[in-house]
Design a protein that fits this description.
By secondary structure, the protein is α/β, with parallel strands linked by helices. It folds into 2 domains: 137 residues, 3-Layer(aba) Sandwich (Rossmann fold), CATH 3.40.50.300; 74 residues, no CATH class. Helix content is 37%, strand content 23%. The protein contains 10 helices and 10 strands. The strands form 2 sheets. A 6-stranded mixed beta sheet has the order 6-7-8-3-9-10, with helices on both faces. A 4-stranded antiparallel beta sheet has the order 2-1-4-5, with helices on one face. Helix 8 links the parallel strand 7 and strand 8. The chain is globular, with a radius of gyration of 20 Å. The N and C termini lie far apart (53 Å). Bound molecules: adenosine-5'-diphosphate and magnesium ion. Magnesium ion (MG) binds next to helix 2.
């Protein structure tokens, strides 16, 4: 008993000190992206993200936020540098390995990217596509287990009662929650959210950010969120990464970030347009 106790308390000691902090999940090493027309969207970006972190990436429009996120699942190929997920260089993956890697990366979009005319549950089942044989998905024959996964993903964002409603009959906030549920249905290791609240009103923006943060905390899913609203970044971010003209110009805990840091990242004074505003709302009250 004593031995086991000692082992357990040693483990909790390690956990306290290292927490989620120690398992590297994503590494960028001198990553550059040059688009046609010689647009330098990323310039030698190096960073390490640990499992379970909630990282908010901020920067002006054009700073390279979307490019950075998209290199993670290779929607954009780096021109130079290395990107490792779980220690594996993803630029070297073959087609099959890439597919497998993408299956575990959930993506959330500014405009939700739902199939509007399809029911909510169908949209969430799309998150299961890479796990189900194509012939079944073409026939709409998802295994019961996948339907259960999809429904429980909807429960996580509190809209399971909308499962059979057409996606385009939902409000923006509800549609984004379907987007989150679809990502969750993938059983992701990493969630990438590209300006997930840019199309939403302030209260709904807060609600969606809270959902993302809660899921990150409950499931320990590493989450990267692009935002250009600095108040949201500060309120929900755990770690903030600042991009300016494709360069990483800040990387630190949100608690160390104040207006002067944002001015540095943005290269100008902060204006009202950089704030989402709005007050925190009780969950479930928003559209
Ligand atoms: P952000 O998401 O921070 O607004 P982006 O990553 O979208 O920034 O863009 C970074 C830079 O790369 C911008 O100058 C943008 O115009 C340019 N860019 C983005 N996508 C492409 C593309 N497909 N082809 C050429 N240039 C692009
Ligand atoms: Mg963008």
């Amino acid at each position: 008993m004593g031995e086991r106790y000692a082992a357990a308390s040693f483990c909790s000691f390690i956990l306290q000190f290292n927490g989620k902090g120690m398992v590297k999940i994503l590494e960028f090493e001198n990553v550059s992206v040059v688009y046609p027309g010689n647009v330098q969207a990323l310039k030698k970006v190096s960073l390490t993200i640990n499992e379970g972190e909630f990282v908010v990436i901020v920067g002006l429009s054009g700073a390279g936020k979307s490019t950075l996120l998209r290199t993670v699942n290779r929607l954009v190929e780096p021109t130079e540098g290395k990107i490792r997920i779980d220690g594996k260089d993803i630029t070297k993956l073959n087609k099959k390995e890439l597919k497998k890697m993408r299956a575990r990366i959930g993506m959330i979009f500014q405009n939700f990217n739902l199939v509007n005319r399809s029911r909510v549950i169908r949209n969430v089942l799309a998150g299961r596509l890479s796990y189900v044989p194509t012939w079944r998905t073409l026939l709409g024959m998802f295994p019961v287990e996948d339907k259960e996964i999809a429904l429980s993903a909807l429960e996580r964002v509190r809209i399971s009662e909308k499962a059979n409603v057409r996606a385009d009959h939902l409000s923006g906030g509800q549609q984004q929650r379907v987007g989150i549920a679809r990502a969750l249905a993938q059983k992701p290791k990493i969630i990438l959210a590209d300006e997930p609240v840019a199309s939403l009103d302030p209260p709904t923006s807060h609600a969606v950010m809270k959902d993302l943060r809660r899921i990150n905390q409950e499931d320990n899913i590493t989450t990267l969120v692009n935002l250009h609203f600095i108040d949201l970044a500060q309120e929900y971010g755990e770690r903030i990464i600042g991009l300016r003209d494709g360069e990483l110009v800040f990387d630190g805990p949100a608690s160390e970030v104040d207006e002067s840091v944002f001015e540095e990242i943005y290269g100008r004074s902060i204006t009202d347009d950089d704030l989402r505003g709005g007050t925190k709302v009780a969950q479930g009250n928003e559209g």
